[in-house]
């Protein structure tokens, strides 16, 4: 380490100097006070050995004060010396030299050795020459830390507070004897009992165990909170048997259980009796608390209070006010540590608890518990089925244990167990009596607690609603969702205090086993609650727009609850199909706009009974479902929904909506590269009887999409493309841009294309960023085709500035194209960086990433091929093909197969290259794209001209290739 000296402003130097002088004065003052206090104490302690220890400490501090330069490093030593002084004063109060034969003498001897060793080392430094002393002190700060730890170690061995308690108790005993008091009346006879052993099945708590053990060793009081069955008792028993805990507390580890006690019958005497019994004491006399306190002061102790809710719930009853002060008194005894386990968060307020929630198990630990009990199948063969079951239980330890035992005792296979669970749910969790064999027993204990009973009917109404809603109750919306339940916020607070529910992510939730118990054992939410929930949720769905506002926030935050409400109305509400269908398609539209994700409504929509009253409603639901699937790149599901909706529209005579379904199907075909199929679907509609009945707007849409397909198949002259939709108000400017775009793709005059596009760019309004970016994109492609790569890159950068923050999908595409240009420029590192960056803007599009993934991996392969990294390119192309097979994207698959062919050709594997090119040619036929025009409409997907294997194959000039393209 080096110090750098620089010139400093004189005022700064003066300020630093004044600060250092002030710190030095504070240190000197602290040392003076400490030395003075030690000298006073030394004169009054009655034990000579203690006087000697204090004298040695004084000598240490005097040397520090007079001869050591870095006095501030000794402040902690000074504080520890002050602590020793106060402890010795208390520990030796009233003692004589005769008392040194016991624990007090041993502790003083150890402390004497420690302080003498420190004094010897400090004094030896005083004898060094000035420069040696300075050097030594400056580099031996670790040595000072070592002295601090030595004093800490000695103080732990000394157990000063226990010695103090012993001395006090000796004085009290002496006074009692002198007063002829009956000692047997005021003392407890203690017979220490062994703590419970570590549970034989204890999994998945290693990190929590280590944390809690460390807290206990650091003298922290801990409150372990959780609902019934989460393993709080097992956790505390395991802590009691941890080696560091047994080493520190020895046989003074006590487990006090209040299990099975009714809070309504709890008394202070019952509380004290259980405590005394756990301490191994035989109670005699009336001053039990004082006697227990004296016993606990005799040495360090760890006291575990299990099932504390029994007295915490009772502490509000008359005559029980003594319990919290008693726990506080025990917690304040030096050296005594408390661990409290409770379902109740209303713990004794005057204790500095460190509250820890006991979480469910993780998947691996849950499986370990299950298969430790269940031997009906091997872990590997049953893993998936059991995993589903454990997830349904949310890894609740008691529920897992009960189900595993039930499966083992009944010899159920994993499949049978899963079927039993689906049929019976919480009833399957009642396999016996007592809380270790019955979830309902545990739940009934919680429900019968005075705090829950005091909530009355409204408390149980709130419980049923929280269990009904899969996300739980939105904390911020609770009053608006349940206006018929007064003070619902307070009710939720009480339920949370009792660990019946918990708060997470802004919602009041239930663990799955508790939720199933409530659903199975209590009536469903009443009609008033359901009406109020519908009013808020359905109101948000009806008024939700494309804008991200407060209504959209409700849809996003409570989407699973709203979906569940729609499911409930579709399946359980008589004569409610019409409203449920309306809410269904409107909710799906909201999802597509604000939170695209798969939905559980799919099978219910297909199952809606079809008749003249539901044709239109069901068609709306199917159309919204198809649109949602399409946004998620779930093309198969989208096609099925649109086809079904199309048939219903025909039955209902709604030709306009039927045409919309056809348009969506055709667009899906085109997006996957099935241009011929897209063209055929639209041509069939154009030739059908329905065509004349369609509005001009929908006809223009059909012409536009038809020309997009024909542009790729080269079945129509570019002069004719997009002319039929040019005069439409919605498609006009866009069609004109695409007309010249098609001219470029079909080999038209580039100068003319550029001129018209620049004119169109001037005509588009500044706010119409779609047309602007489209025209700029074509100009970028023009520059790219002409080899002006830097200009093309600059134009694409301009588009990013135009659409960033508005259209993340376009930012994605442009980033990909910029990577292609960087690769063509030979800047492969930049190209790779841009490929990696391209996934950033689309992260918010969730599952639509599936489609984007294909383009990312394909273009990554394209970059690696250009860079000569053939193995990496091959890997990327193979991954893309696999993804295309899953997504049904034949176009990108065609590009990737050609890429594999070029890899094989570059590596000299001509037969494999010929095979890949033949596969590529076959897919061209399937898509409807002429092989020689494979990249005509995708210039940024094309290979550099130096990769000539494909063209050689098409021309029949590929060596050793037998097939020739005609």
From TrEMBL:
Instruction: Please give the PANTHER family that the UniProt record associates with this protein.
Output: HTH-TYPE TRANSCRIPTIONAL REGULATOR RV0890C-RELATED, REGULATOR-RELATED
According to the lineage, what is the superkingdom? Eukaryota
Choose any GO biological process term that the UniProt entry carries and state it. cell surface receptor signaling pathway
Q: Which residues form the ORC1/DEAH AAA+ ATPase domain?
A: 220-312
Alphabetical list of Pfam families matching this protein? AAA_22
Please give the organism: Rhizopogon vinicolor AM-OR11-026
Q: Name one GO molecular function term.
A: ATP hydrolysis activity
* Name used for this protein in its record: ORC1/DEAH AAA+ ATPase domain-containing protein
Q: Which InterPro entries match?
A: AAA_22, Adaptor_Cbl_N_dom_sf, ARM-type_fold, MLKL-like_MCAfunc, P-loop_NTPase, TPR-like_helical_dom_sf
């Amino acid at each position: 380490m080096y110090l750098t000296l620089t010139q400093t402003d004189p005022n700064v130097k003066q300020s630093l100097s004044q600060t250092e002088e002030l710190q030095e004065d504070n240190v000197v003052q602290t040392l003076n006070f400490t030395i003075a206090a030690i000298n006073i104490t030394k004169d009054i302690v009655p034990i000579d050995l203690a006087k000697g220890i204090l004298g040695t400490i004084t000598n240490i501090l005097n040397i520090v004060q007079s001869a050591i330069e870095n006095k501030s490093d000794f402040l902690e030593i000074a504080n520890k010396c002050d602590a020793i002084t106060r402890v010795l004063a208390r520990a030796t109060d009233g003692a004589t030299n005769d008392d040194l034969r016991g624990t007090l003498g041993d502790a003083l001897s150890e402390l004497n050795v420690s302080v003498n060793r420190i004094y010897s080392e400090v004094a030896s430094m005083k004898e060094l020459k000035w420069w040696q002393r300075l050097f030594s002190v400056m580099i031996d700060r670790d040595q000072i830390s070592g002295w601090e730890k030595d004093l800490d170690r000695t103080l732990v061995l000394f157990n000063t507070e226990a010695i103090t308690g012993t001395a006090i108790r000796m004085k009290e005993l002496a006074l009692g004897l002198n007063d002829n008091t009956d000692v047997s009346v005021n003392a407890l006879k203690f017979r220490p009992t062994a703590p419970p052993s570590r549970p034989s099945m204890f999994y998945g708590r290693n990190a929590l165990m280590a944390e809690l053990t460390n807290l206990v060793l650091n003298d922290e009081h801990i409150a372990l909170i959780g609902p019934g069955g989460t393993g709080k008792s097992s956790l505390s028993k395991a802590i009691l048997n941890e080696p560091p805990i047994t080493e520190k507390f020895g046989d003074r580890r006590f487990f006090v259980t209040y299990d099975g006690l009714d809070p309504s019958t709890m008394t202070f005497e019952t509380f004290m009796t259980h405590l005394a019994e756990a301490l191994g004491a035989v109670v005699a006399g009336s001053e039990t608390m004082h006697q227990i306190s004296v016993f606990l002061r005799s040495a360090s102790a760890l006291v575990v209070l299990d099932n504390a809710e029994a007295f915490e719930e009772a502490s509000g009853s008359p005559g029980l006010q003594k319990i919290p002060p008693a726990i506080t008194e025990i917690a304040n005894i030096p050296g005594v540590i408390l661990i409290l386990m409770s379902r109740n968060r209303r713990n004794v307020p005057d204790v500095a608890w460190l509250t820890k929630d006991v979480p469910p198990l993780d998947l691996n630990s849950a499986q370990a518990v299950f298969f430790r009990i269940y031997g009906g199948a091997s872990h590997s063969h049953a893993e998936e089925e059991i995993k589903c079951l454990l997830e349904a239980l949310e890894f609740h330890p008691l529920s897992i244990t009960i189900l595993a035992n039930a499966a083992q005792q009944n010899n159920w296979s994993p499949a049978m167990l899963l079927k039993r669970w689906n049929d019976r749910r919480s009833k399957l969790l009642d396999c016996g009596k007592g809380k270790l064999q019955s979830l309902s027993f545990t739940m009934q204990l919680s429900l019968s607690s005075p705090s829950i009973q005091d909530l009355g009917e409204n408390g149980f109404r709130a419980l049923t609603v929280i269990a009904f809603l899969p996300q739980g109750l939105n904390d911020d919306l609770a009053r608006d969702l349940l206006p018929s339940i007064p003070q619902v916020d307070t009710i939720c607070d009480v339920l949370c205090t009792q660990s019946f529910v918990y708060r997470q992510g802004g919602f009041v939730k239930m663990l799955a086993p508790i939720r199933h118990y409530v659903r199975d054992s209590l009536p469903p939410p009443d009609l008033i609650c359901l009406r109020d929930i519908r009013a808020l949720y359905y109101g948000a769905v009806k008024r939700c727009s494309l804008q991200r506002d407060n209504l959209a926030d409700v849809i996003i935050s409570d989407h699973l609850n709203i979906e569940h409400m729609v499911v409930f109305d579709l399946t359980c509400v008589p004569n409610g199909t019409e409203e449920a269908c309306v809410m269904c398609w409107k909710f799906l539209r909201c999802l597509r706009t604000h939170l695209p994700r798969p939905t559980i409504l799919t099978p219910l929509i297909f199952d809606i009974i079809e008749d003249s009253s539901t044709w239109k409603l069901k068609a709306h639901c199917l159309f919204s479902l198809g649109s949602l699937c399409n946004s998620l790149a779930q093309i198969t599901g989208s096609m099925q929904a649109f086809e079904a909706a199309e048939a219903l529209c025909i039955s209902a005579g709604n030709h306009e909506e039927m045409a919309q379904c056809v348009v969506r199907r055709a667009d899906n075909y085109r997006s996957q590269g099935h241009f011929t199929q897209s063209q055929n679907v639209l041509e069939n509609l154009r030739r059908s009887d329905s065509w004349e009945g369609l509005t001009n707007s929908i006809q223009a849409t059909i012409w536009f999409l038809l020309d997009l397909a024909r542009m790729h198949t080269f079945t129509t002259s570019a002069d004719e493309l997009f002319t039929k939709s040019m005069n439409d108000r919605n498609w006009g400017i866009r069609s004109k841009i695409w007309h010249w775009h098609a001219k470029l793709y079909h080999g038209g005059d580039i100068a003319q294309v550029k001129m018209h596009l620049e004119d169109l760019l001037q005509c588009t309004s500044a706010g119409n960023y779609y047309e602007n970016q489209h025209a700029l994109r074509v100009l970028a492609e023009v520059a790219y085709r002409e080899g002006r790569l830097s200009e093309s890159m600059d134009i694409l950068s301009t588009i990013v500035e135009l659409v960033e923050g508005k259209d993340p999908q376009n930012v994605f595409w442009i980033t990909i194209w910029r990577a292609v240009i960087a690769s063509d420029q030979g800047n492969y590192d930049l190209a790779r960086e841009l490929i990696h960056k391209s996934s950033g803007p689309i992260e918010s599009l969730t599952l639509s990433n599936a489609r984007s993934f294909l383009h990312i991996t394909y273009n990554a392969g394209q970059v690696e091929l250009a860079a000569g990294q053939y193995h990496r390119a091959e890997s990327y192309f193979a991954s893309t093909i696999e993804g295309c097979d899953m997504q049904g994207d034949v176009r990108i698959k065609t590009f990737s197969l050609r890429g594999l062919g070029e890899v094989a050709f570059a590596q000299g594997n001509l037969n494999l290259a010929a095979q890949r090119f033949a596969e590529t040619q076959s897919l061209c036929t399937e898509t409807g794209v002429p092989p020689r025009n494979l990249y005509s409409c995708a210039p940024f997907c094309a290979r550099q001209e130096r990769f000539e294997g494909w063209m050689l194959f098409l021309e029949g000039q590929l060596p050793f290739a037998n097939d020739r393209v005609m």
